[in-house]
Write a structure and sequence with these properties.
Chain lengths: 389, 389
């Protein structure tokens, strides 16, 4: 087990009716709020009205900024920063999923940042240490941003997607009502589940020894997700299934499951090029990349993959043939993705071979390697894309 | 799954050498510190000197108050409160185990409390909402107080043991170096492990349905503890085993494993009378009480006990006979306690039958029932003591 620090002060308010506490929670931190959201779905579902009601009931003054899109854009972040400065905003409330939260985090940091916030995204040494406090009303369980340190924003003018990670970006609270996820379309439910599983697999495939507690915690959370994501998809208004998926999504990414270990994260980097190049959802891209990554690297620590196969996917084959155990695990993982309606090959998503080399090279731009389980170079990433054909 | 709030902002600094950060962490919150500890063990082991060095390196001013005993006493808490007021203390640093931390919490709340702090311990409606900030250097993994809301203090004059629970008591940080537990005697290691397991079993045996994620998380943490506590005891300087036990002890009691469920806690109440009446460690008392409680109540939800037997203790008997499965689980649990050198019957601890009725009646003093899995009355508690003979 490695030395570690763990700090996660987000107050989770979870369950039916949780949104009624929004106004009172906001009032603990701010007097004038930026209400940040995406498109019309929160209007259609009634979430918007309930949040506004709660703010008004507490007499909280607010200004609105909608229009967040998937892969949140730097231009809107900059617009939000100017708006906050002009209006004297002292708290940001994000209502939505990971994109809205990540956009809100960019604004929160940008308001107090000395210079243009994009400098911080482009230079890890310029990571912000101060931000306006922010809170979340979560409507999509997937990204885990509701209690994470991270924000990913895209500079659409230059097609650059970059992240900042800082404790000052951890939301002060997250309102989580599983009923808010009843209206998620089946495909979005699937993509969210894939992202949540990926957050846990990235952490699970570590080369750090003696991490038994976190192994066990990750395994338990993965089994829960694997069981309930298809139920939530098939029965959209099954509260219990939605609740298990939603709470698992937060635990998967609040860094508790990281403690004492070093995750891999190559699959995320490899996927980012894919969804940058093609119009494909992050969760769908991960379903294509992860099995291919596994096939390429598993022999570096076959025991860890066998443990995963046995404890999470109940593979019960002869230990004399670890390769067969791992292949059966990958088969079950792919079957799970397919059952959710996700692609598991590039061809399933209609993606051909024309850009594989380009994407592999671009994946390594500005860095020596990706991943920690095995340090991968551009040639390795190219091979993984080829396996995924 | 029930609605819940989860909030746990303790910064965990875990690993070899973590104590070097003590001074810098203290400085974030206070300028003049009460250094609170127990007896001479932290002097013998060198912990005291290392903490002092770190405080001095950061120029932190401190005042000392030692002398905390197991079952921390109200008189020392009161002495600490007066000392803090007199010296203008604004931060409390507890160096030790659960008793020292609980005593420090009593002082921290008492300094800002309007009236005598014992009123808060005696009246749940007078729970404190403000306290001085406090931090912890942990030397004994057991109570989980290093990141919990609770403080248990004994009014030695009136033989009353009472608790307060408040978010304002959650430590700001906890320094956790597993090496600090190398010198724990074997019996204390065993009692700590028993307490940690009990914190998880109390949470596990719930009547709330659809708590699959937390079931899985608790099961994983219990398996880790069950595996590593005997290793830590047999090989006191096995860093990895000590680290697994130490981190599990915190997770077991920081309320994450509570989310969405209602724990039982009857066994804790029943044990408190036992260790109040007899000179027996809390962890040893729990090893006696828990198996007896299980035998008495398991038929109320045999499926939950079967799940526990199968997932945590690997009992693989025919599902046609759930009673046999549960009995085999209890046999394995008792064998684990015995392997650690703990008693599993009152007679193992030299305790006779003369006070069983008295303890049962006293256990129900001032309350209608104990426990949530089954609401127990004095006659029930008496039966459980008799099973434990």
């Amino acid at each position: 087990m490695n030395n570690f620090e763990f700090f996660n002060p987000t107050r989770i308010v979870f369950g039916r009716g949780a949104q009624a506490k929004t106004g009172a929670l906001v009032k603990q931190f701010g007097r004038k709020v930026l209400l940040h959201y995406g498109g019309g779905s929160i209007m259609r579902t009634g979430v918007y009205g309930q949040v506004i009601d709660s703010l008004k009931a507490e007499g909280v003054d607010y200004v609105e900024l909608g229009g967040v899109k998937p892969n949140p854009r730097l231009s809107l972040v900059r617009e939000g920063i100017e708006l906050c400065k002009r209006e004297g905003i002292d708290f940001i409330l994000a209502v939505g999923g990971g994109s809205t939260i990540d956009s809100a985090k960019g604004i929160a940091a940008g308001v107090l940042y000395d210079g243009d916030i994009w400098e911080a995204y482009m230079n890890p040494e310029k990571t912000p240490t101060r931000a306006l406090p922010l809170g979340v009303v979560l409507t999509i369980p997937a990204a885990g941003s509701e209690s994470s340190v991270g924000s990913v924003v895209t500079d659409e003018a230059n097609q650059l997607k970059r992240a900042i990670n800082s404790e000052c970006l951890i939301p002060r609270f997250a309102i989580m009502n599983p009923e808010y996820t009843f209206t998620l379309p089946a495909y979005q439910t699937a993509c969210g589940a894939s992202d949540i599983l990926a957050h846990m697999m990235e952490r699970y495939f570590t080369r750090v020894d003696h991490v038994d507690l976190t192994d066990r915690l990750i395994e338990g959370a993965m089994r829960t997700l694997i069981n309930y994501a298809p139920v939530a998809q098939a029965q959209p208004e099954n509260y219990d299934a939605r609740a298990e998926v939603m709470w698992t999504g937060t635990i998967a990414h609040n860094n508790l499951l990281d403690t004492g270990r070093i995750g891999d994260w190559a699959s995320h980097d490899i996927e980012h090029e894919l969804s940058g190049q093609y119009d494909i959802a992050h969760g769908a891209g991960l379903a294509i990349v992860f099995p291919a990554w596994m096939r390429y690297v598993y022999r570096d620590d076959v025991a860890r993959f066998v443990q995963y196969a046995q404890r999470v996917w109940d593979v019960d084959l002869s230990s004399a043939d670890p390769d067969a155990i791992v292949m059966e695990m990958i088969r079950r993982l792919e079957a799970w993705y397919k059952r959710l309606g996700l692609p598991v090959r590039l061809s399933d998503a209609g993606i051909g071979e024309e850009h594989l080399r380009l994407m592999a090279d671009r994946c390594l731009l500005g860095r020596e390697a990706v991943g920690n389980f095995r340090r991968l170079k551009a040639d390795d990433v190219y091979e993984i894309y080829k396996i995924a054909r």
